[in-house]
Amino acid sequence: MKWNKIAPLMLVSVTLAMSGCGNQAAKQDSKSAATPAATATAAASQAPAKKLTDVKVVLDWTPNTNHTGLYVAKDQGFFEQEGLNVQIIQPGEGGADAMIASGAAEFGVSYQEGITQGRIQGVPLVSIAAVIQHNTSGFASPVAKNIKTPKDFEGKTYGGWGAPAENAMIGSLMQAEKADAGKVKFVNIGEADYFTAVKRDIDFAWIYYAWTGVDAELRGEPLNMIYLNKYSEKLDYYTPVLATSEKMIGEKPDLVKAFTAAAAKGYQFAIDKPEDAANILIKAVPDLDKKLVLASQKWLSPRYKDDAPRWGEQKRVIWENYANWMLEHKLLEKNLDVDKAFTNDFLPASSK
């Protein structure tokens, strides 16, 4: 009887003990199983952030809507996503091309004419993307001056910065209309404001419509615009472009690819969302005229890509045509090796 009563109690005790051991083991196993995951999570949270590569990109001029894509890429983290810490800087006295060529800046904003002339002189600059597909520059004058065609340049005063290309450009356009370029007076106005100069010293000047032309609209000062590319396909060259050096391409192609990919995203953002892009530029450079930036961005955004299959795409014929034009007008000493002056190799398949 005694055994009969004790045996069940012992069985219950052993069962409970085993159950307790099992629960304890389960808890221990659970704790052990959780440890690696918890450790990994903790380690990940304490792991140092990926080191970014410092990069400088130098502008060709004071910040404006030609540069919006770069500021967007920085603001939206596109450069950082590509592993880059990008600093956007102003050009020194020697200009952007000199800084790119010397390595003072890895990348910069340049233009086809500058790269062409530089390469002829042995400066190994390379264009890696066209910021704008078609030339938006031309000769502007107040409507009151009645300059509607290049022939109307006769007897007028042109205000420029003293570059040989200016004389050649005006002469080329006037020659096409059988006008006499010798009847144009040339005045060097340097960096003088267009609006002040046309009221005081000159009749017409070379401008980019996206900035000065749009500004004229906002000021209520209508102007006549003679676009270069309307008179010759050879003058529909790329201006501006993003550039780097042959050394960068040869030694750090992955860095060039990363920079170009991020820039492409920045400009695509500006194409898709001009107002947002304008506000990013204004935030980065608060001294800019907000109304001008917004109006300029709306005018320029659809022209970044225009009829190209993707933003940044460059055509060999454009480089060849303008180099031939420069050679014809004695602005070059020899033929340009076109295929070394530009590349599409670092552009993403799509900027979307």
Automatic annotation (TrEMBL):
Gene3D superfamilies: Periplasmic binding protein-like II. It comes from Paenibacillus sedimenti. Keywords: Signal. The lineage of its organism: Bacteria, Bacillati, Bacillota, Bacilli, Bacillales. Residues 64-277 form the SsuA/THI5-like domain. This is ABC transporter substrate-binding protein. One of its GO terms (biological process) is thiamine biosynthetic process. Residues 1-19 form the signal peptide.
